[in-house]
Amino acid sequence: MPLQATSGAASYDAFGGNGVAVVPAYIEDVFSCFLYTGNSSTQTITNGIDLSGKGGLVWLKSRDAANYHELVDSSRALIGQLHSNSNDAPSGNSDVSTFNSNGFSLTFRSGNVNTSGEKEVSWSFRKQPKFFDIQTWTGSGANRTISHSLGSVPACIMVKRTDTTDDWAVYHRSLANTEYLVLNSTAAKATGATRWNSTTPTSTVFSLGTDATVNASAGTYVAYIFAHDAGGFGLTGTDNVISCGSYTGNGSTTGPVITLGYEPQWLLTKRATGGVSEWELFDNMRGIATGGNDANLLPNSSSQEGSFDFLSLTSTGFQITNSGANTNSSSDTYIYIAIRRGPMKVPTTGTSVFSPVARTGTGAGATITGVGFPPDLISIDARSISRGNAFYDRLRGGSYLRTYDTASELVADSFHVTNIGINDITLGANPDVNGSGTTYINYFFRRAPSFFDEVCYRGTGSATTFSHNLQAVPELIITKCRGDAFGWGVYSSAVGNTAALFLETTGTPDTNTAYWNNTTPTSTVFSVGSASRTNRTSNTMVAYLFATCAGVSKVGSYTGTGTTKQIDCGFTAGARFVLIKRTDSTGDWYVWDTARGIVSGNDPYLLLNSTAAEVTNTDYIDTYSAGFEISSTAPAAINASAGTFLFLAIA
Predict the structure, then answer these.
(1) By C-alpha distance, which of 209, 189, 206, 211 is closest to 197?
(2) What is the pTM for the complete model shown?
């Protein structure tokens, strides 16, 4: 999908400081978590990662079955997969048949990661300075060093012997250079100076001792090498995308808060002291629910995917929410690898971050495909019956919020949205989302810089700020208390920081410092006061943040004329989505879209604040290439002379 750099001028070489201009790198260029369904045949996984030209590692695992992990890398010509849960040597060809310029292709050999009907996951790591590297060597049996191309000091090194059976040896910067972990084992850290020769890696080499797991004479080896907070990404080459650190457990469900400086999408953790424990692997595509259960896999085990509340994501890192030994035994040390969430690039087309889909319900389980991107927020409203609109989203997990009332978060059971995938969602049979013969509109939004972000946070009940990753000043913020029945709070730059609108009502702005602490949001934080709609004490909260993104979205306001009025959003092919709310008087929250019809004639609309069915016999807005046009027939709630109105439009 088309994307652009976020701000500023082209950077200079962040990998060596030699003053040579380089093309900026972004996490979406070098890492992908991709979900797919096995077919016991050939299939191509298109994830945008150049594995054939740049080289890298693909790590695959069945989510449904107790099958081995498969690790396949470009350094060994796809010959023989490795298994993180086993000390065995590679045998036979891997299920990955080719590395491609935009992903990889699969065949069916072992049955581990491509069995028909099984849900599978793949993680692709492209070789890139300051992120990830692969090195191979033949052992010497004597102390030595191995050169690498990471461009920074390695923070984690996973070594596997490939000519015979032997354990994985793992170096991590949070342990001493005389210590190691074993990837295929639950064991705590062990001491053995012959793994790393008691020598800390440098930006050019890492050291090996004489132990057979890393350097037996004539043995063959591969190492997967990970960086830590080394910069090298983003337009200026200073953004971090991978962190290797540690935390100390406290044995509480209110566990340690780990600050990374970004929201992660992938986490690998391991208890290093205090006793045996599993390696734990999480990612946001399979699901890390903030305030709910998280999908976990165990790199040291072939077991199928589990689900439990282990951790929550924050806009700047993560927090442990489980008191179990695998992630949070009191006083024990845990190591982790974290990878930043993408995309990091600003979108240049609306279709890369927003998709409206009009459909008819089936009354049975259904999968909605062809979204065009991994959706983060899904808004679903019934058109032909009175049901009302609800928000489902990836970050909150298996729950939904109704925009037309004050109800707390509701659990999405097997009859609602049951899965949010890479390019799709799966629905049950509830009439809210998929009743037989009922017509619906589904809106899909992707989080992306300057367009849309979502923040889950815990309310404090007093004036404070919360970080976000919009990388632009939010112009529209929609908040909701998830745990209690308090209504929605809406910040609009058109209204200002002294008042809030309520999404579930037609009301005018309510002036009160308790909503936004009379403080305008910035490109890094938004402010809240003590109001329960924006910051209820000790409750889970959610905020949806929107901004103007050139050619993609426009958050703005206009003054009504009572006659035809064109709203210039800077688009070239018109708006595909329009939200309007009157702000100087009462008025509904109107929504139109091109999937149902924005045309020169009648345009169907729905109301976010109402359960009413779609209205189809009105012509309130019309097409306009630069944005949208307000019709002269529009009522006072949309175009009263001298009235003021806020809007969100998406191209």
Answers:
(1) 209
(2) 0.95
